[in-house]
Design goal:
Layout lengths: L2 E3 L7 E5 L2 E6 L4 E5 L1 H12 L4 H12 L4 H17 L3 E3 L6
Antiparallel strand pairs: 1-5, 2-3, 3-4
Length: 96
């Protein structure tokens, strides 16, 4: 199952401050605080829907973490969190 960024990605307002990304979603009226990895996930999925394993491989190449297993564990957590916030969705899902 491929994942993609939400349809309203272009309406999100982004600010970066001290390594954290503040993303305001005008649809929900909420501001989300993302770390660099979560922000990169969202931005990558804006350009191309990807299978989670493809996304994992790209992020491992970008970040080159020492502890790859821990990094991947955090990646799965980030994907769940971004999905809970409706910032990423499965490809083909209809958004209201």
């Amino acid at each position: 199952m491929k994942l993609r960024a939400c349809n309203h990605f272009d309406r999100l307002s982004w600010e970066e401050w001290e390594g954290e990304f503040y993303v305001y979603d005008d649809r929900s009226g909420r501001t989300h605080v993302l770390n660099e990895a979560a922000a990169r996930i969202l931005r990558l999925l804006r350009h191309e829907a990807m299978e989670p394993q493809q996304l994992r491989d790209q992020l491992l190449q970008m970040f080159e973490p020492e502890d790859k297993e821990l990094f991947v564990e955090h990646l799965w957590h980030h994907l769940g969190h971004l999905a809970d916030l409706c910032l990423i969705v499965p490809e083909g899902r209809i958004e209201l």
